[in-house]
Automatic annotation (TrEMBL):
Any one GO cellular component localisation term in the record: cytosol
UniProt keyword Lyase, yes or no: yes
SUPFAM superfamilies xrefs: PLP-dependent transferases
Keywords for the protein's UniProt record, in alphabetical order: Lyase, Pyridoxal phosphate
Annotated organism of origin: Chitinibacter fontanus
Protein name listed in UniProt: Low-specificity L-threonine aldolase
Keyword check for Lyase: yes
UniProt gene name: ltaE
Assembly description: Homotetramer.
GO biological process: glycine biosynthetic process; L-threonine catabolic process
Segments forming domain Aromatic amino acid beta-eliminating lyase/threonine aldolase: 5-287
Similarity comment: family membership: Belongs to the threonine aldolase family.
UniProt cross-references to NCBIfam families, sorted A to Z: GntG_guanitoxin, PRK10534.1
């Protein structure tokens, strides 16, 4: 029986084309700046993301934290949504690496209120206060929602007015672009820098990219080395990244359609509550309306050779990706239907 893994789109295996590209990659030494495949990847990413330059980094967390470190002075304050990946899932790195404090704002499905945000900006005029050194947004959001361009534009205007840089956690920016039906550059026009992941829905085995101005990326390259991110024959990792950008970014609509189909089917099962309007990319979030032990849920799926993250506080997430086919949905739904019937 085919194994299904719905924990995240980070579990994706590289495609056969990616494996072959890794074997055939022409490499150099990236610290010396002479790995041709890495150079091609960075130029491609910069063009697709609408920025002057890009830098290949080991992970999305690395890219976000490198952006904060490069933008900010120690003791600065970073304004960010209270449900963002930077706050919840980056191990407090902003304090340890960047030496900054995070000022979190309440978000509405990932959106920040521009007026509230502007009221929180501090310029460090009062010696008691930190200075706002950066604003961070996330699109697509890790809650599965896509932030409307109008919201990003409003916050971008505020950032420009106050001369504060804006960084976008665009780990799944190509998912956001797919949902909005726009080119990724239509999103990144509202930020100074952006990080995007190659190793999530784009299926590359390793790596992310940080993009921005030539000056910013030059500073970030030095700091990447300081943090231990200097890569050598990294062309073997950049090669599948090129396939991720050119090919895998063009098929994300299939993952979104499968997530929609899965959500629709789950919504028909008693005991499950799901907001179908919130299923905008490849993530299906839902709640159980009655108490079911997380271990019971995990065991039921494991028995069907399906790996899931157990629910937390009654909420559960299933994520589609290129290795989850439309024909797999009935099997997933069948396990859930049996689970809810017997509990």
């Amino acid at each position: 029986m085919k194994t299904l893994d719905l924990r995240s789109d980070t579990v994706t295996q590289p495609t056969n084309a990616m494996r072959q590209a890794m074997a055939d990659a022409i490499v150099g030494d990236d610290v010396y700046g002479d790995d041709p495949t890495v150079i091609e990847l960075e130029l491609t990413a910069a063009a697709q993301l609408g920025k002057e330059a890009a830098l290949f980094v080991p992970s999305g967390t690395f890219g976000n934290q490198l952006a904060i470190l490069t933008h900010c002075q120690r003791g600065d304050e970073v304004i960010v949504g209270d449900d963002s990946h930077i706050v919840w899932h980056e191990a407090g790195g902003s304090a340890v690496i960047g030496g900054v404090q995070l000022r979190t704002l309440e978000s509405h499905f990932g959106q920040l209120d521009p007026q509230v945000l502007e009221g929180k900006i501090r310029h460090g005029i009062d010696i008691h206060e930190p200075k706002t050194g950066l604003i961070c947004l996330e699109n697509a959001h890790s809650n599965g929602r896509v932030i409307p361009l109008a919201n990003m534009q409003a916050i971008w205007s505020i950032a420009q007015h106050h001369q504060i840089p804006l960084h976008l956690d665009g780990a799944r920016i190509f998912n956001a672009a797919t949902h909005l039906g726009v080119d990724a550059k239509e999103i990144t026009q509202y930020c100074d820098t952006v990080m995007c992941c190659l190793s999530k829905g784009l299926a590359a085995p390793v790596g992310s990219l940080l993009a921005g101005s030539q000056t910013f990326i030059a500073r970030a390259r030095r700091l990447r080395k300081m943090l231990g991110g200097g890569l050598r024959q990294a062309g073997v990792l950049a090669a599948p990244g090129l396939i991720a950008l050119h090919t895998m970014s063009q098929r994300l609509e299939q993952d979104h359609a499968n997530a929609q189909a899965l959500a629709q089917a789950l919504s028909q099962i008693g005991g499950i509550e799901i907001d179908l309007a919130s299923v905008q990319i490849n993530m299906v979030w839902f709640k159980f309306s009655r108490n079911i032990a997380p271990a019971t849920v995990s065991a039921a799926f494991a028995a069907a050779n399906i790996t899931v993250n157990p629910p937390e506080h009654g909420c559960m997430r299933l994520v589609t990706h290129w290795q989850i086919e439309h024909t797999d949905i009935d099997r997933i739904v069948g396990v859930m239907r049996q689970l809810m019937t017997s509990n």
